[in-house]
Write a structure and sequence with these properties.
5-stranded mixed beta sheet; mainly beta; Tachylectin-2, Chain A; 5-stranded antiparallel beta sheet; 330 residues; binds beta-L-arabinofuranose
Length: 330
């Protein structure tokens, strides 16, 4: 008998899961995580220890229902263009089809973003023969807006290679900007009607401080690192992301999906493990933050577990910060 799901506890314990992208499809919560593997790869700056090979789809009938694992939904061996490292995915529904967007290294070891489709939110998913033309880096997140226009947000520094794309082509030796220069922003592109290619040009999202100046690369408490996620609440777009080296999930707001976004503050305090990665979803009348930590493996960062906690907005639309370990103590 599976146990009921509880806030701030691992959703599943029979596999390691990370990078949860949560959506409501067909009245249920579906979670699209990375599937961390139990292996001995050395931890490197480029994230070689995140050597994931497949995706499993999870789902919950209700927020306190047992979390079901539908098994393998896609494996790297079935993706013609990919070589390794199936990192953080996301999913979307449009055209009566479920789309799984995922990053992987191509045969030249460069991260690209691919799409796979299914008639069911639980998969299995059939990948396209090629990655999305013009795609690069990691951590895709899709927003299908109320007008049915769909946007793909993506990007991540270091292992995610975003620094190497500053000129528009891949420069393997490229570094990030100096600390006093504007930070590198996540990327966005509008998706074509069939969701399989970019309709417009890839653009860099601007994240500004309260005075309208760009957040700088040295501002590690606020600058973008990886894991962009965009959701909409009361007509505002919220861009949330990981700050990487300072291990927080923070957010910025805009009136337009393509920005510019104004930095607002922290959503999630550092969790156990180096990485932090999240998604935000409304289910019934409440809002939830899905996140991961490495508590299930005793702190081993490439073996993480997906959890959730409730999220609360203030009257002015700002988000109340969450410390999941504080909540545990209450
Ligand atoms: O899980 C592999 C990578 O670690 C993800 O793509 C990043 O967001 C970080 O969580």
């Amino acid at each position: 008998m599976k146990k009921n799901s509880k806030p701030n506890e691992p959703l599943v314990e029979h596999i390691y899961t990370a990078d949860p992208s949560a959506h409501v499809f067909e009245g249920k919560l579906y979670i699209y995580p990375s599937h961390d593997l139990d292996h001995d790869n050395l931890s490197t700056h480029d994230g070689d220890h995140y050597a994931m090979e497949d995706y499993h789809v999870l789902s919950m009938e209700d927020i306190d229902s047992p979390c079901i694992d539908y098994g393998e939904a896609l494996h790297v061996k079935d993706i013609p263009w990919a070589s390794r490292q199936l990192w953080a995915p996301d999913a979307a529904f449009k055209n009566n089809t479920y789309y799984l967007f995922f990053p992987a290294r191509d045969k030249e070891d460069i991260f690209r973003i691919g799409v796979a489709t299914s008639a069911s939110p639980a998969g299995p998913f059939t990948p396209m023969d090629s990655c999305i033309p013009g795609s690069f880096s990691i951590d895709p997140a899709v927003l299908v807006d109320e007008d049915e226009r769909a946007y793909l947000f993506f990007g991540g520094l270091w292992g995610g290679q975003l620094e190497k794309w500053q000129t528009g082509t891949f420069l393997p030796e490229a570094d990030g900007p100096a600390e006093t220069e504007p930070a590198i922003g996540p990327r966005v592109a509008e998706l074509s009607e069939d969701m399989l290619s970019f309709k417009g040009k890839v653009q860099e999202l601007q994240i500004l401080d309260e005075n309208g100046s760009p957040i700088l690369a040295g501002d590690e408490d606020r600058r973008f690192f990886e894991g962009p996620w965009v959701h909409k609440f009361n007509g505002n777009y919220y861009l949330s992301y990981s700050t990487g080296t300072t291990h927080c999930i923070v957010y910025a707001m805009s009136k337009h999906p393509m920005g510019p976004y104004t930095f607002k503050g922290r959503i999630l305090s550092p969790v156990s493990g180096w990485t932090t990665h999240h998604s935000i979803v409304q289910f019934k009348d409440k809002w939830y933050l899905f996140y991961h930590d490495s508590s299930l493996s005793g702190g081993i960062d490439h073996k993480r577990c997906v959890k959730y906690t409730e999220l609360t907005y203030n009257e002015d639309g700002s988000i109340q910060p969450v410390d999941p370990y504080e909540t545990d103590k209450k």
